[in-house]
C-alpha cells in the first residue's frame, strides 16, 4: 500500500469550533477518522497530522520526500505567503511524488488576500470548496493517478 501524509496547517486543529459556517462542524478527530477510512478503501495508508508551526510543516514535507510518501496538503494560512512551505512542497513533486493541495472552503470566493496560493504552482493539483469531501476527492485523485 502507498503511504500518504495528510498534512494540515494553522488553525485547522480548531475544526468544529472555528467558524463552522465556513469550515463545518466536524472536528480534526473526525477528519482523521474519515481520511484513514477513505484511504483504506483506496489501498492507501493515511497518516493525518495538524500543526500551527510552519517549521514543523516544512519538516513533515521533508519527511514525505525521504519516506517516499505522497502528500495531501492543506497549508491553511501558509497557502498565501509561506515560501518555506512552497519550497518544501516543490521538493515533494520534483522528487516524483504526488502532492494535492486541498482547502475546505473555496479561497477564490472569499477575501481577496485568500485568492493567491504560493503552493498551487508546485502542486500536482488543487481541490477546494467541498468541505471534508475535498480530502476524499484528493485521496481518490491520488489513488487514480497511482493506478495509472
Automatic annotation (TrEMBL):
Q: What is its EC number?
A: 4.2.1.10
Tell me which UniProt keywords the record has, alphabetically. Amino-acid biosynthesis, Aromatic amino acid biosynthesis, Lyase
CDD domains in alphabetical order: DHQase_II
Q: Which gene encodes it?
A: aroQ
- Site Transition state stabilizer: give positions: 18
Group of enzyme by EC: lyase
Mind telling me what this protein is named? 3-dehydroquinate dehydratase
Write out the GO MF terms. Answer: 3-dehydroquinate dehydratase activity
Family matches, as Pfam families: DHquinase_II
Q: Which HAMAP family match?
A: AroQ
Q: Which family does it belong to?
A: Belongs to the type-II 3-dehydroquinase family.
Quaternary structure per UniProt?
Homododecamer.
What job does this protein perform?
Catalyzes a trans-dehydration via an enolate intermediate.
The reaction(s) this protein catalyses: 3-dehydroquinate = 3-dehydroshikimate + H2O
Q: Where does substrate bind?
A: 74, 80, 87, 104-105, 114
> Which PROSITE patterns does the record associate with it?
DEHYDROQUINASE_II (PS01029)
**GO BP annotations, alphabetical order:** amino acid biosynthetic process; aromatic amino acid family biosynthetic process; chorismate biosynthetic process; quinate catabolic process
What InterPro entries does UniProt report for this protein, alphabetically? DHquinase_II, DHquinase_II_CS, DHquinase_II_sf
Q: List the active site.
A: 23, 103
On whether DNA-binding is a keyword of this UniProt record, the answer is: no
UniProt pathway annotation? Metabolic intermediate biosynthesis; chorismate biosynthesis; chorismate from D-erythrose 4-phosphate and phosphoenolpyruvate: step 3/7
Amino acid at each position: 500500500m502507498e503511504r500518504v501524509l495528510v498534512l494540515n496547517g494553522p488553525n485547522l486543529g480548531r475544526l468544529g469550533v472555528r467558524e463552522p459556517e465556513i469550515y463545518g462542524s466536524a472536528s480534526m478527530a473526525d477528519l482523521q477518522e474519515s481520511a484513514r477510512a477513505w484511504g483504506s478503501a483506496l489501498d492507501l495508508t493515511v497518516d493525518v497530522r495538524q500543526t500551527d508551526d510552519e517549521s514543523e510543516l516544512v519538516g513533515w514535507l521533508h519527511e514525505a520526500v525521504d519516506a517516499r510518501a505522497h502528500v495531501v496538503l492543506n497549508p491553511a494560512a501558509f497557502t498565501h505567503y509561506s515560501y518555506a512551505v512552497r519550497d518544501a512542497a516543490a521538493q515533494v513533486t520534483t522528487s516524483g511524488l504526488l502532492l494535492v493541495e486541498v482547502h475546505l472552503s473555496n479561497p477564490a470566493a472569499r477575501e481577496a488576500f485568500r485568492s493567491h496560493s504560493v503552493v498551487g504552482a508546485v502542486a500536482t493539483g488543487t481541490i477546494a470548496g467541498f468541505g471534508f469531501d475535498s480530502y476524499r476527492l484528493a485521496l481518490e485523485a491520488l489513488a487514480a493517478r497511482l493506478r495509472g
